[in-house]
Amino acid sequence: MTTVIRKGWRPVLVLILFFVSWQVATAFLSIPSWLIPSPVEIVKEGIHSWNAFSGHLTSTILLSVCGFIIGSMIGLATALILHLLPKVKQALYPLLILSQNIPIIVLAPLLVVWFGFGLLPKVIVITLVCFFPVSVSAMDGFRQTNEEYIHYMKMAGATKMQLFRKVEWPHALPSVFSGLKISSTYSVMGAVISEWLGAQKGIGVYMTLASSSFRTDRVFVAIFMIMILSLLFFCIIVLLERTVVKWNRKEWK
User: CA-CA distance, 18 to 35, in Å (whole number)?
Assistant: First the structure.
């Protein structure tokens, strides 16, 4: 706890200075609130509209978690298949890279045409955003396994599955969690984008309604909540990593 406080006070101080400067600038320059609201106005609006906003927040959280879990599972499964089957990797890995060159915001309307306005197209959007960082990070982790350990296990007569389970998978876990941390933050962004497809609830819907009525303070409330959610999901994955990958504690100091 002491280490966290010692390392964390600098970014907290920078944030405080940033918000203080923002507050002073809006007051000194007389910037209208519909253009750039002050931090105090944003906090007041967040408290005032919390009852209406909480339903949108809950919807986005559930959608983000669902899409993150599915996307991460598909990403891990893809990495395992491509790692254990090198010929399949040679055939499909370029296609995996190309799949990320399609802008999600362009693909989203097509998903609505194909699957309607229900939950499925939204989950697909988040899955597409989340699975790639996990799969690439996991494959890099498998590839960077210590060759000496692999050579020793082969000399001991280990099978390919034993080699994977006892050497490659444990050594790839830090890389896997790196991909999970990236995907956890992307999941919130993907959920907000998917909610623009015609959802009835969600932070994306709240932002759309707020911007169309020129309620910039509510837009900033939504933006700050997206940032908080992304940070919260990231911290959860970090805590999970510290629980699972106990032998890698030296990397966290």
Answer: 18
